Amino acid sequence: MTTDAAVLDREARRRAIDPAASYIVQAPAGSGKTSLLTLRYLRLLADVDRPEQILAITFTRKAAAEMRHRIVAALELAAREAPANAESHLRELHGLARAALARSRERGWGLEHNPARLHVQTIDGLNHWLARRLPLAARIGTAATLVDDASAMYAEAARRTVALLDEDSAVSASLLRLARALNHEPRMLAQLIEGMLGARELWLPKLMNSPGRPALRAGIDRLLHGALEAELADIRRRLGNLDCRTLFAICQAAAAAGAPEGPILPLARLQDLPPATADAVPYWQALAELLLKASPATDLRKTVGARQGFLPASDSPGWKSIKQRMTSFLEGCAEREGLAQAFAAVRMLPPAGLTDGQWERIDALCDVLPHAVAELLALFAERDTLDHPAVAAAARDALGAESAPTELALALDYRIRHLLVDEYQDTSPSQEALLRLLVAGWQPGDGRTLFCVGDPMQSIYAFREADVTLFLEAQRQGIGAVPLIPERLGRNFRSGAAIVDWVNATFSALLPASDDFERGAVRYSPAVAARPGEAGDGVRVHPLIDADDGAMAAEVAAIVQQALAGASPLPSIAILVRGRPSLPPILAALRDARIEYRGVELESLLDRPAMRDLAALAQAMLHEGNRTAWLAVLRAPWCGLTLADLLQLATPDSGFSIRQRLSDAALLRTVPVESAARITRLRAVLEPAIADRGERSLGGWLKAAWLALDGPATIGDASDIANAELLFSALDRLELEAGCTPEASAIDAAVAGVMASPVGSDAARVQVMTIHRAKGLEFDVVILPDLQRGARATERPLLYWTPVATGPGERGMVLASRTDAAENEGAADALERWMRRLGTEREALELGRIAYVAATRARRHLHLVASASSRQTDDGVVLRRPRATSLLGFLWPALSSEFEQALAARAAAGAAPMPAAAGRRRLTAPPLRRLVAGFISPAPPSPPQPARLRISGEPEGSIRPEFDWAGAIAQAVGQVVHFELQRIAESGFTPEAGDMPAARWRRQLRELGIDDAHLPAALARIAEAMTAVGRSQRAAELLDPAALEARSELALTAVVDGVLQSLRIDRTFVDRDGVRWVIDWKTSAHEGGDREAFLDNELERYRN
Amino acid sequence: MNPNDRCIAHLEAGGLLLTRDLRQARILRRLHDRAQVGAGRRVWPSAQVLPLDVWLALQWQAAASGRPRLPGILSGVALRWLWRQQVEQGSPGLIDPADLGIRARASWLRLRAFGGDIGQLSRWPLTRDQQAFLGWARAMEEELRARDAGDGGDLARMLVESAALPGAGPDILLAGFRRLTPAQSRLMSALRTGGRTVDRLDPQGGSSVAWQHAAPDPETERRTMLAWLRERIERQPDGIHAVVVPELDRNRGVLERALASTLQPELELAGAGRDERNFDIAGGHALATRPVVDAALAALSCLAGPVDWTVASRLLRSEHLAAAQAERAARIAADLALRNVHGQARLAGVDLAARASKAGAPAFAAALSTALSRMAADRRRSAGGWAEAFGAGLALFGWPGEATLGSHDFQAARKFGELLRELAALGSVASDLEAAQALAELRRLAAVPFQPESGEPAVFVLDTFDDPGVRFDSLWVAGLTATAWPRAVTVDPLLPIEIQRQLGMPEVAPEDCVAEARDIIGRWQAQAGALVLSWPRRENDTDVDGSPLVPRDLPSLPPPAPLSSRERLAFDAARLEPVPETRLPPLVAAAVAGGARVLELQSQCAFRAFGELRLGARPLEEPQAGFDRRLRGIVLHRALQTLWNGLGGQSVLASLDDAAVVARIGAAVEQAMRVAAPAGAGARMIALECEWQRRAIGRMVALERTRPPFTVLETERGLTVPIGGLELSLRVDRVDSVGEDLIVIDYKTGHVKNSAWRGARMDAPQLPLYAVLHAGRPTGIAFAGIGAARAKFVGVSHDGGAIDGLRPASKFELTEDRQKGFDWRQITAHWRAWLERLAEDFAAGRAIVDPKLGADTCRFCHLAALCRVAPGVPEEADGDVGDDD
Ligand code: SF4
User: Which terminus of chain A has fewer Cβ atoms in its 10 Å neighbourhood, N or C?
Assistant: First the structure.
């Protein structure tokens, strides 16, 4: 069996590098996906005319770098002989690399010297590259700065859109309608639009591609109707052979006994399960109402009563037996698995169509959202910035035109012949759209291939818009017109047999049994261990009961210590968490146990007290009115005032800012002397620092103040020096992107968004990271702690959308809006509930995949650490079912027995059940420390400064922004006359053709920026001046070209009092008496400015 | 001969030195001058060293003075305008035609520089982009012909083609031109033919001391680079040194700080920015981002039309406008008023002036008003007219401020002044402009990189992997990773690739890139006294390879001695002590503003109550669209007060027909809105809010109609109550008498739950306070939850009667652990004890940091930096925010 699997696997791999065919390869964890990609790439190299014809797309930059690195390494290896005893896969690699290298040499590609020719890119990189190659088709500015986080601009665009509410705009009415639905809160509308703009890649195509409005509505109605009936059919199927006749007979008896209006009467009319049609919905609802509790809505009733229409026996004697029959029917139901869930699904059915209210809101959204996008694009153009979705849209636009395939080939000068796409399971719809465009026009057998590889079981990037159904779809029907041959790898080269077996057993039971397009369900595909395990390897569950964070963290630390104890070589250990909230106690426990760990992106800058101080300092310096920030600056360890001092400074709260009060001498006398000294020093340092704003970038400005305050002496950890630099850089970037000093809230957001620099050295054996980050990595020991932690509920968006299939080949998009706040008691209506349910289902499926990714990182040991909580019931202490949104909730069927045992063990040990844990971490402030009085940071030594020549010309005086024609004309006239005089001095008074001088002057004046309206006046003044010169005997003498040692425009450089000066002598000569004349023409206020600099800038600006 | 010496010798001999760019020219001139000083001279003829482009422009001018019929050269701003017009007309519907205009001009110039003509393009199949370009370029050439004008970037060709070459003159030496474009070559041969001597400096085959260095990551690479540099400077203080750093723009700030830290630590301290810098960094951030220029542009936008509140806020806080010092406090106050959550999101200049004057900044207001009237932004004017109006408007508005400008600001402001002149030059091609158009042009002009100059730098930071054109005593080239070097091909997308190849444009084919890169490395080796080629082994948490072109046989750099930064020294020397906290003085005046909020905050977190109420710490707010919840609450309370004052109780209500009730509600809302609506709120926003109020109140009143008979005893009655040593002023929304019962009612617009009164640290102490302290001894309390979706009462009373929705005392979960079974007397007794405790703690100044729900409480508090709470991560957020009333 195993050998069979090995053979099959080997053959699949061999096929997958066939350069003539297109594939989609499902490569489960540990199956050596990257090696396969490398092999195929090398194979393709031997097949192309130039390496650029192969384009590989990876999910991250890291993956791109790694793949390129592997290819280059293989090529380097190929330059040498293959080691004789190499393993077979190495020999294969070597062989392919040799062929590729031979091709490279034959064609003169010089791949060894120019690895940039290997086109391995992320999708973002590809988008950018395409948009740059086809700028016009992309329709957008390509010189713009690409910002990673454009949320400030989303906010502004949303604000601008909502502001139209009060203007006469085409969208005002729609805005009004939406605002009304949102509890009449335009602010909320703005917030929601802001959120939508960030995710516009997802919905915009749906709105743009939708048919006209009436057709849109009809389409949605049709889909809803279809979806409803499909779900009913499904329910009916799940109920299977349930014999309802007993139930209907009971209902008939009850009806005969005079049951009131309610679920009984309609059911009494039935003989069989109602049909799966929309008009039968009332019957289905009656069934659910009769059989299920109101809450929890998924539990079957145990008894029935008056509320369901079963009257008390006192009413009529027949009721007693009716009720008994009903109870025993319910008992029978309780034994049937899945029955309750099937009936519960009735409560979650979609409506059969849109209500008018829903449609009106969708209609309004179709107006408003595209408009908001237009506002955003306008804003981008104004600010010369772009976000990634804009670039992606541009790339698609560029490829979208009719003639695109040939266009692209023309623009690139070659055709892309082979596409390789890594991690295809994490592709988003917009990325898939790009791929489709790239392969548009490909013909079977034309030598072009598409190769997608990934693992749908590892699709965990839904929050980045990944859509796993795309993988399933591609497996079935290819991408665009390119059919893909599905292949599946089955061998796991990473984990030992014990782990592989556990994963197979657990996940084949927990992951769905079959693929399901619409829901994004992926069925489990088992693996075969390629590596035998060692004794003691495997999976261990650490069941904790009612443990708090501390106990959990201690358990984790203990596992680590055990794994490290006496091991040689030391194993690599990873602690993988789902989110940052799990981290603080674990990191604290590791530190307490003196275990060195390495972690990247574990905490936000704002989690570091020293960085919080810095952020407060920035806020205070930027806004004198920010009282909180100013108080925080006084409180921070560099100043360290007591609360009593602060109170003294802050009261009375009289409208004076804290900054002003710091200079109030009378006030300073009322605080203790030492505090007064601290305040005085702070002021002495901070005031000049604030005044320095214009001299530095925002980050530099903050740093200067921080240094002056001895801030670095107050940090808790040396890593905060690097963190501070991260913060300064973040501010610089923000300033650059905003184009001005950013707003306070933007600063907070930017700082919070920066992750603190990595802790621990590269050599640390223990790594701490999120499961998402660990994707693609492997470790000897993997610890998954805090599995019981649930995820946060998502917000209700403005617009929902979901693909719906109502039959084979019939698919469409259902749009829905958030329910009107004034309807349905402010809760979601049936449609919105259904939409949310679909979302929850998708999340639950993804949760299973996250668990799979986490578990498959381990080579030898996998530790699962979780705490279940217990609860006292009448039957004693029982375990609560873990939250459905937690990993423990997902794994519960596989793990619950271990927890039950732990609970029993606790009871046996007689340990008192813990009181219902408060659950929340209590927060306090650590005792505050401050710099001792009079602390001064040592100054670093300066390097020797060479003696420099000082340059004169540091301008003095005031700036006058005025531009006025009078001044400009005077200046221009001055320059022209100057030029004329120089001319005469060089070549004498030469008579010119009548209009020659005027023509010359005119063009000179134009070049000097004088517009036509002002030309006549300026010309007249020049003519006047030149006539005067022409008449003057003295002028003739001065300008005589024949004069002795005559020079015009003589430029000299001189050292005057140690300062280098540039001098320009307009004219100099020696007259007949041997006297040297030095002449400066004074025509008017003529300041030449730095003409060469001016010209250069002028040219510089338009150079590429 | 050392190429620098060759340049100096050439200049000393009276020759003309032409360089690639201004920076190179400046360095060479400085070297020449230094040589003169070194030779003991005091005066010498200025070195004739110019960037080639500048020299060409001067030659053209000179030629044109003799031949005025030669085409004129259009200014950059005019050319950009014309190109954009061609693009706009040729390809309508573009989002940013200006950008494509700039690209198109660049491609056109490139084509011309390499001897091509647009006529040749149609020989190849063209992409859509290329076809469009061809159209624009044709139209542009037509335009230039019609205007008898030329493009300054094309002068090398124009000079040759119109035989306008300069005659005799000094010998020419070209420095820093690794290769000349065909147009330049032709020009040079023409000059030679005309008798000029033209030489090209082409240093090659030198042998500097060179090392390679692979750093663990970019940060370490930078640190090592600077430490090395410092060693080099110490060894050769009079030398010139350079580093080449890729992606300079992204790392400018970091690099600037690192350079100061290593080379001139004294620059790191505030106030030292004015000192002469020892280093010079290529390029610079846009002029427009300098605060002084931003102030000017923001001021002009405000003069030209309504602006976003953020712009108004920057104006109010700017140092560079009228009366910045004298009115500082008032302007800050005006800004705080502007930031009120229900402020205006956009405001016009007149609004801003009104606000400033109201806040006590008359000079600012007056300056703004006069500037506004001078601007008359609704007119159309010529570009020059706008330049005049902008300048005058700014001057009237007090720009650039009263304080003496620092040297960088001064240079920036002067540069901005020059931009107005450039703007005026647009008049030659564009006639009537709107204010917004003119301002947009000005903004574009202000997007030029700006780098203030000071001192005589010893270290130059370059940003391109290219021949620097100067010999540096030390040169470090960083970032030579495999992907960065050799460069990827740079194909011009607007020109067919084939023509680019035929004309010999560089880096079109990958093979060229390798050749170029080799050539450049050769020049680095030839021209540097000491050379280091380096790259990081890891970047963005990813392993990367070094460039294969770095010669493998270079020795590895011996590590320079690490340097200690100011931060490190301070950190190592740190001496900290505990803050000697003293007991806080108890409240002197027992009365505190804030009423029930005092206890509410105290209950959430004692420090928060202290911070907000005693220190007056407030967050900076931002205007939001429409009415916020606070304002909604104010209007609601007022309207309900009016309504119930008129109705008095249920009997009147019952006697009215629906229409009358609606009318009364409408009138009450309208009246409330008249008082409460903020200035500047738009009519539709107000109408929208009124609609909500009418609906919500309508629902509530409908519910009240169904209640058992009651009379309203009090509405919004002020009440000052003593508790735990505090005097709290409370305002009771309403007190109803229902039969024997007296129920205190609080209106709420958000969620209502009676868990808000649970435990010693209850979320909403207001109603329990009334229940305990109201003289009438109430028998129950209730939230009236009012919203557009529904109205409901939630509360507790001694027997659960009086109003539907009230719980009987015995079923009320009173304590934190949800115990019930207390009677009303016991409940109020507990409440009293708890509330007293909260009040006492507050009065005594017990300001401990103790958020009730840990990080979930802190999430909605802005004091974290002040209270210094340990960081925590919020648990599940159920979004249960405190309500406002
Ligand atoms: S941030 Fe938290 S701990 Fe600090 S004052 Fe606010 S609520 Fe209290």
Answer: N
Q: Which residues lie below 8 Å from residue A911, measured CB to CB, with a gap of 6+?
A: none
Q: Which residue in chain B is spatially nearest to A651 when comparing CA positions?
A: B615
What confidence tens digit (pLDDT) does each residue in A477-503 have?
899 889 999 999 988 989 999 999 999
| Model confidence at B596: pLDDT above 70 | yes
Cis-peptide, bond into residue A214, ω within 30° of zero: no
Q: How big is chain A by its Cα radius of gyration, in Å?
A: 39
CA A587 to chain centre: 25
Closest residue in B to A378 (Cα) is: B95
CA A214 to chain centre: 36
Over the stretch A1027-1047, which tens digit does the pLDDT of each residue have?
888 888 877 877 887 787 787
By the 8 A CB rule, do B288 and B412 touch? no
The answer to whether A1005 contacts chain B (CB < 8 Å) is: no
Structure-token pair, residue B276: 């002469």
Strands B279-281 and B459-462: parallel
Q: What is the least distance, in Å, from the CA of A376 to any CA of chain B?
A: 11
Q: Residue A452: left if φ>0, alpha if ψ -120 to 50, beta else—which one?
A: beta
Ligand 1 neighbours, Cβ below 6 Å, are B 605, 607-608, 611, 849, 851, 857-858, 861, 863-864, 867, 869
Tell me the pLDDT tens digit for each residue of B608-630.
999 999 999 988 888 877 777 88
The β-bridge partners of B742 are B737
Strand partners, B746: B783
CB A580 within 8 A of CB A770: yes
From the alpha carbon of B861, which atom of ligand 1 is closest? 6
Percent of the residues in chain B that have a pLDDT greater than 70, as a whole number: 96
CB under 8 A, 24+ apart: contacts of A78-84: A79/A112
Nearest to B388 among A736, A943, A964 (CB): A964
In this predicted structure, the answer to whether residue A1064 has a pLDDT above a threshold of 70 is: yes
Distance between CA B401 and CA A28 in Å, rounded?
67
Pairwise CB contact (< 8 Å): A919 & B383: no
pLDDT value of residue B207: 65
Q: Which residue has the tokens 């500037």?
A: B371
- Which tokens sit at B85? 């017009």
Distance CA B409, CA B174 (A): 35
pTM: 0.89
Q: Does B698 touch chain A (CB under 8 A)?
A: no
3-state class (DSSP) for residue B777:
coil
pLDDT digits (tens, 9 = 90+) for B573-582: 999 999 998 8
Q: Is the pLDDT of residue B274 over 60?
A: no
Rounded to whole angstroms, the Cα distance separating A756 from A748 reads 15
The CA distance from B810 to the nearest CA of chain A, in Å, is 23
| Confidence check: pLDDT of B510 > 80 | yes
Report the run of H or E that residue A860 belongs to, with start and end.
strand A858-868
Q: How far is A468 from chain B (nearest CA, A)?
A: 26
| Residue A647 sits at the chain B interface (C-beta within 8 Å) | yes
